Amino acid sequence: MSVKVDFEVLVDTSLSTVCSSEQLKTALNKRFISLINDYEDGKWRFAKFQTYLWDNIAQTALSQRERDSLAGKSHSQLVEAARNLRFSDADEVGEGSEIAEIFLYGFMKDHFGALPVVPKIFYKQNAQDNAKGADSVHIVVKDDDFTLWFGEAKFYNSIEDKRLDSIVTSVLKSLQTDKLKKENIIVTNVSDIYQLPIGSDLQARIVAAIRPKESIDKLKSRINVPIMILHECDITSKNIDLTDSYRKLISSHHMERVEAYYKKQLAKSTSVFKYSDVKFHVILFPVPNKQAIVKAFVSGVQFYKSQG
């Protein structure tokens, strides 16, 4: 399934095979992916991370029509994409959420071979329209069949319990029937789905399956929720080399946090009908310094905006 991911995947498995919690061992619909960046000259590779963001920004901030009209014009794509980015100085906790959204889009494309359906940053240009519904919508096609992926993307200073609680609330709220129907309406109303590189028969089946008049219950087994969490990490900031010791520390830390997350989510899962049919994928990626990443990215956005 994996295409090509620029970062090392430490763990990618069902929690049923690795989780110590008896309560979660039977939760076959819950997966966990741990990613890490590498080091060079004793430093975490900030430039590599920033490059990955800018390599994927057009997918998240431009519509398919815009990308097609600017094909072969990489600089123009970056300028137009930068114009669609929004930042809120008042939202210190969620600062950098667009970075997480872009990273999720790149990972979904590279790791799962996903096709982007709704470029959410493009549809959330209004600064007052932050994060309504899922942060990304993708379709994964396999064996002439499809699954729908409604993504959550967060960038936090830590992954302490309080942060996990807020993610659980956001994820479960996004799975309410009215929210899913609104997402499906957006998908069917935008032209991007009709331009995906898939057969017309499969395209017609997808559109028919997500029409508002259809019951969401029929779709639950097709729904996946990738939960991308970029987070500041002391282990990563104190480290200077990509060693097995570092890999083990991160794997252990992530495992403990993802178990805590799923316990919290399971405790509130009764709010979602057919919860057990939905597949979840917590994706954790540690960074040494969130502020430095946000500052560098914002600087790049301001540069490209000035070029327009």
What does this structure look like?
Helix content is 46%, strand content 19%. The chain is built from 13 helices and nine strands. The protein has helices at 15-18, 22-25, 46-61, 64-69, 74-83, 97-112, 120-123, 161-174, 177-189, 200-209, 234-238, 244-267, 290-306; strands spanning 8-14, 30-36, 39-40, 43-44, 115-118, 136-142, 145-156, 223-232, 279-287. The strands form two sheets. A seven-stranded mixed sheet has the order 1-2-9-8-7-6-5, sandwiched between helices. Strand 3 (39-40) and strand 4 (43-44) form a beta hairpin. The chain is globular.
Keywords:
alpha/beta, two-stranded antiparallel sheet, 7-stranded mixed β-sheet, 9 strands, 308 residues
Secondary-structure map with pairings?
Elements: E1 8-14, H1 15-18, H2 22-25, E2 30-36, E3 39-40, E4 43-44, H3 46-61, H4 64-69, H5 74-83, H6 97-112, E5 115-118, H7 120-123, E6 136-142, E7 145-156, H8 161-174, H9 177-189, H10 200-209, E8 223-232, H11 234-238, H12 244-267, E9 279-287, H13 290-306
Helix pairs in contact: 3-5, 3-6, 5-13, 8-12
